[in-house]
């Protein structure tokens, strides 16, 4: 028994030493978040790979943080330095509790100002794309009902099954209730489910319409029709990096490094990167490294 206790104590001491050396020394460590979606994991790895190349700091990747709220709370507590994937529409309404702003440039300026004043966080310029909520149908359904824009659904929605993200169905403002009021349209039935199941359910004709994401790789692989939000119901979901102000004070060199990602990823590029993850089953880290290599981020002086 004494030998077991001694062995356990030695293991705990060794493990504790590892934790202290690798995670507690904030002077040498920068923590970067990764989410649960392919997009957030790809962008997270792009930031990690870029910082590992351009700095001598210990970059710790905290993967699978499930929501913007979790990332935000972690950053407020000081447990997280960099959130690579934040969207203006999500944080404008959810985190800040402000009214919807439909103009992308104005929405970006609002979150940049408010995040600085309220939390001391630096909201960076956009990667160059906006991951919009988008109503989608198959090519066959679009032809059958003459669907090009969201308002076209009014003539046929009452006999259609809609699939959506679980949280969107209950969301205030830009959720299902707000949509039915803005477009004066209701579906026969709504099926809230995990986003990953939506596309297969649509193609297999278990659903007639889905509310997906404009940068999802399956949009192209399934040749889906994205309906134009002609009444501009959804706010812009422009994607950016957000960094703790305290982190930038400690490591001011991070700002010019991360600013290099501004306007480097448009919607088609993000769709392709997501496709490589979801359809070709490439690891996000590999996708991130290939992207950075292709765009010469690893060249001398980059």
Walk me through the structure.
The protein has 302 residues and is an alpha/beta fold. Helices cover 47% and strands 18% of the residues. The protein has 14 helices and ten strands. The chain has helices spanning 2-24, 38-54, 68-77, 88-95, 104-119, 139-145, 166-170, 176-183, 195-203, 218-221, 245-250, 254-259, 267-278, 284-294; strands at 29-33, 58-62, 82-87, 121-130, 133-137, 161-165, 189-193, 209-213, 225-226, 238-244. The strands form three sheets. It has a five-stranded mixed β-sheet. Strand 1 (29-33), helix 2 (38-54) and strand 2 (58-62) form a beta-alpha-beta unit. Helix 2 (38-54) crosses helix 14 and helix 4 (88-95) packs across helix 5 (104-119). The radius of gyration is 22 Å and the shape is globular. Residues 1-25 have low confidence and may be disordered.
Extended strand count: 10
Instruction: Quote the beta fraction.
Output: 15-25%
Assembly state here?
single chain
Report the principal-axis shape: globular
State the separation between the terminal residues, measured CA to CA.
58 Å
Structural class: alpha/beta
- Determine the number of helices (DSSP H or I, runs of at least 4 residues): 14
Mean pLDDT over the full residue set:
90
Order of SSEs: HEHEHEHHEEHEHHEHEHEEHHHH
Spatial strand arrangement across the major sheet: 7-6-8-5-9
Percent range for helical residues? 40-55%
Unreliable stretches (pLDDT < 50, length at least 5) are 1-25
Radius of gyration computed on alpha carbons: 22 Å
Main sheet characteristics: 5 strands, mixed
